[in-house]
Amino acid sequence: MIKVGIIGAGRIGRVHSESISKYVKGAEIKAISDIKVTEELQSWAESMGIPNVYDDYRKILQDPEIDAVLVCSSTNTHAPISIEAAQAGKHIFCEKPIDPNKDKIREVLDVVAKAGVKFQVGFNRRFDHNFKAIRDRVVAGDIGEPHLIRVTSRDPDAPPIEYVKVSGGLFFDMTIHDFDMIRYLSGSEVVEVYAAGGVLVNPEIGKAGDIDTAVITLKLANGAIGVIDNSRKAVYGYDQRAEVFGSKGAVQTRNDTDSTAVYSCEAGVIAEKPKYFFLERYMQSFADEIKCFVDSIVNDKPTLVNGNDGLQPVLIALAAKKSLDEGRPVKISEVA
Amino acid sequence: MIKVGIIGAGRIGRVHSESISKYVKGAEIKAISDIKVTEELQSWAESMGIPNVYDDYRKILQDPEIDAVLVCSSTNTHAPISIEAAQAGKHIFCEKPIDPNKDKIREVLDVVAKAGVKFQVGFNRRFDHNFKAIRDRVVAGDIGEPHLIRVTSRDPDAPPIEYVKVSGGLFFDMTIHDFDMIRYLSGSEVVEVYAAGGVLVNPEIGKAGDIDTAVITLKLANGAIGVIDNSRKAVYGYDQRAEVFGSKGAVQTRNDTDSTAVYSCEAGVIAEKPKYFFLERYMQSFADEIKCFVDSIVNDKPTLVNGNDGLQPVLIALAAKKSLDEGRPVKISEVA
Amino acid sequence: MIKVGIIGAGRIGRVHSESISKYVKGAEIKAISDIKVTEELQSWAESMGIPNVYDDYRKILQDPEIDAVLVCSSTNTHAPISIEAAQAGKHIFCEKPIDPNKDKIREVLDVVAKAGVKFQVGFNRRFDHNFKAIRDRVVAGDIGEPHLIRVTSRDPDAPPIEYVKVSGGLFFDMTIHDFDMIRYLSGSEVVEVYAAGGVLVNPEIGKAGDIDTAVITLKLANGAIGVIDNSRKAVYGYDQRAEVFGSKGAVQTRNDTDSTAVYSCEAGVIAEKPKYFFLERYMQSFADEIKCFVDSIVNDKPTLVNGNDGLQPVLIALAAKKSLDEGRPVKISEVA
Amino acid sequence: MIKVGIIGAGRIGRVHSESISKYVKGAEIKAISDIKVTEELQSWAESMGIPNVYDDYRKILQDPEIDAVLVCSSTNTHAPISIEAAQAGKHIFCEKPIDPNKDKIREVLDVVAKAGVKFQVGFNRRFDHNFKAIRDRVVAGDIGEPHLIRVTSRDPDAPPIEYVKVSGGLFFDMTIHDFDMIRYLSGSEVVEVYAAGGVLVNPEIGKAGDIDTAVITLKLANGAIGVIDNSRKAVYGYDQRAEVFGSKGAVQTRNDTDSTAVYSCEAGVIAEKPKYFFLERYMQSFADEIKCFVDSIVNDKPTLVNGNDGLQPVLIALAAKKSLDEGRPVKISEVA
Lengths: 336, 336, 336, 336
What we know:
Chains A, B, C, D: Residues 131-251 form the GFO/IDH/MocA-like oxidoreductase domain. The structure is a homotetramer of 336-residue chains. Chain A has 336 residues and is of the alpha/beta class. In chain A, 41% of the residues lie in helices and 24% in strands. Chain A has 12 helices and 15 strands. In chain A, the strands form 3 sheets. Chain A has a 7-stranded mixed β-sheet with strand order 12-11-7-10-9-8-15. A 6-stranded parallel β-sheet of chain A has the order 3-2-1-4-5-6, sandwiched between helices. Chains B and D meet through α6, β12 and β13 of B and α6, β12 and β13 of D. β12 (249-252) of chain B pairs antiparallel with β13 (262-265) of chain D, so a sheet runs across the interface.
């Protein structure tokens, strides 16, 4: 049984807390911290059986009983807190992105390497049953050499414009998961990116300097070609599909639904819409990534989403942004 | 190239004429007959390139150039015309049922046997791509020993009440195809039948002494159990599915649709309804059954739907009706 | 927060314990009892955080802090323990069947009624997302008047022959769930049953006086017809599907799978097999039935599976057995 | 009834001949020409009921009874024969591409316009039931404003290397259909193209200066983004799918199969592979495009695939080739 501390009690911090309580047998939460400790937080922590609530994450880092921390605070604090945590000898699960700045990421990875602690990045979709099933086929060799990797990733609705403004942009906020997925499913590195984008959902997003619709083409080191299509608003729900096509076959996934019920009536043959959004679709994967993290600590195994897996998608996002701005394909080496 | 005559220019007679013209390369239609030769029929025949239109089917039987006839006249004339045709040495394709009376059927089969002509019954669904795919799996041994055979057969709408009154009843008019399908898919004979039925679609059907909804259980000689569910009215269209389950696996079919398009919107994920009715769903099978018939003549092979295949479903229908009337399972041997 | 005691620490007792721990926020387990308290049980209980382990269930009944019990002991003890528990003023969740004997069931229901405690029977499939989606469509009126209800229920493999011998037979052991499902989905009572059965999977099952394959037709009070098909062995996995067809449309469910991945290769287009067996397929429903039970206690609401819901399937099973033995349809009134 | 002449008796010339004979009621074939009139061609023509076989297409153009011609000869002759045919006053159905050279295409379109004859290009996939169902949803407004258009187009196997060498390259030979499909489904013109390609199927194709795998991104005048993925070899068969996603929803199609049969066994749940290749998949569309052409003549309506529809995909292919060669997005205006 390892003891963990959660740094940041926002949405994702609570998602992890709940899934650890319910599903992760080998871990217990000893403390949670947040810059703002409200009564609501206190009472929520109590209901979860979390004994300590701090307003300073350093209390977590200073607790010798705590083996590992989950960095769930705001994005700009991921890097400095991870560095402090590593220096305090804590194993680290860090939410994505480690940092929007590639140099800061590299600094984190250096410190982590020197400290010899485990480090895992929160690309939870790698643990989703559907994407994992694709990956398993690829690893088993059933696809042969991958030739084409397609990821469809569309949100059910655009976030509030205030969120968009501070999100870092579509590529860093949303596509970052898909960039990771292309690497994960293909087993290869991205070498060049071309991004076509537009403002088709909401003109306010354009005024904020961002886009809401995109198609990104990615050339991979193994010769395969990846392609991602994104939209901030799919009126039918959260559309999360992927396909890997290769020399021996192809594997693709559909969306998950709440039930398999199909209703046939005069209007047509009607199935359910996809599960609404990431909490509904990916809840199990949030638990499974933490199980993996705990397992890597307990059994001293490498984590399945390591520091480089945190760095590469940021480089791809940088290249995608540059491609969009300059209207040309951009090599990762140009931004690395 | 063989020459055929069509006896009866109603709906099914014209369906066969069209499919022979379009799809059956080895046959041409030399004549068609109908008890009522209208101008419309004359002009239709001309458009089809059928050189002769008679009001007396005997002219077809007397034409030495005609090798084979399709008996598409009204049900009560199937048996006598088939007998005459056999005696005239013509090969016979006879629409189902040969006759509602089992003794008359046996008489037809005797005459046909003595005449040594080919005889095929119009159970076109055996030639449907979906049911054939099930049958192929069974014959290939992929199912192992069949244990359960399920047929779902529901019409898009009840026929006019005037039709119901002269139809011979649900079992003889509609389920007869499903009785044949159970035999075809299982490769075994029915030995006992239990029918549960009701009047749920239209009370007028009940007043006419018929039912519109039924579940029929069939015990087969090989130990397998068949089950058919029928409705005269499926508001979403013609529902035609089947499944064979056995010791090594199961195979089932879905409905055909006009396209594979699936529309995702706020209301749900909407696929197309089944093809509307038998002309839409089974058109290709009407052509293929005639191709098979022509092939059996040209290459002197047995037909794929022989006289016994015409007799057995009528016996099963008789048993089903008796079961419904008496509220108990009825053995085929009781009605044979 | 209510306190519960679990009576019986076999498979289903542990399933409920685990799901309460993980998913049921408003309940905690204070004690578990089993006639055989092993070290393994002690250590399992400790790992689950269950503070008390008894070899006598009466200690649970005598604990004034315990609000409710789950009767998970062997079938022949369900009735007497339920009676004692009711007399002790405990709310009761009783595994199915309450008893194979209808008179004992009625005795239990009488005592429960007098005691004024909540009583819920463990027909967990009512809480399955797929069957619930069908039921929701029926209740919403989307199906109109139900005409046909079909349940397919096939196990992945036959149980050991020793189990078969003491199981009470296919209808009491396996089909009992499907009998409940027909009532649940149709919203109507069964009035007559016809069962066709066979020994097609394993001749040892026949020697033990049981069957392994069945088709059961059920006439319902509202005129609809139900049909169940059962097999003890579907080589492709646990086959659990249902359909309700009515005047306004139909709704049907497919099997659940571990992922939606579809693999296309030279051999075909291959999807996953159904989830393996009831623990995999129905785990969430085990949690949800207990949530419902807890909710009925906390908010003083009727349970969703009441005493009559425990009685009726046993009556239907009795009628099915009699029908199979006598080769004729049997009215529920004959066995009630 | 109009009379047509077929120019070119190769594969596609014969496909059109057969489909006209079978399906197109308002047309009859009076003559066919080929530069090489063999005995085999003579006997095939006889079996099709085509009365005249010429070695000089000019005999067809000179026959005053012939209303329309189908130009099915080799690609380099499409333009000059179309010009002659227009000058002879014949309506023209011209196989794609009109010409690889955009100036020649424009010359053809000029002559056709002056002659006032009907002109249709052989983009048969517009008449495919699946793609038409997508288009119908778009035209009906069910998709709202289109945002993303995806076309997957993969052949079951690469053509012989000798064919590849003279094919004009992947974009002109294969993707040309997909370029047309993007325009057809989106209802908008392509303004810029970016092509990523590789040689992943067969290195010989690379040695011949061509590619076998590609992802092409297309910016459309209405702001939508199109994306095509191509492979010369999908081992599971001919993969032909599309999706349009927009402000009100999305519509997508699956592949067609020979039957809907699904086989469940220990190895998995196995459906059929897609129909093998274009003759199997698109046969009906070949008939329907000719019906449309005949209808446009008989009822003096515009054709559904006009001269500009023949020109635009060639311009897009030119831009795609330039993009691939230069590693940058290319505007259509650069190549027009």
